[in-house]
Amino acid sequence: MPRIVKAKAFQSEKTVAVARSLLGKFLVRSTSRGKVARMIIEVEAYDGERDRACHARHGRTVRNAVMYGPGGVWYVYLCYGMHEMLNLVTGPPGYPAAVLIRGIEGARGPGRLTQALAIDRRLNGSACAPESGLWIEDRGVRLPRSAIQATPRIGVDYAGPIWAKKPWRFLLATASPRADG
DNA sequence: TACTCGATCGGA
DNA sequence: CCGATCGAGTAA
Question: How far is CA A152 from the centre of its chain?
Answer without folding.
Answer: 15
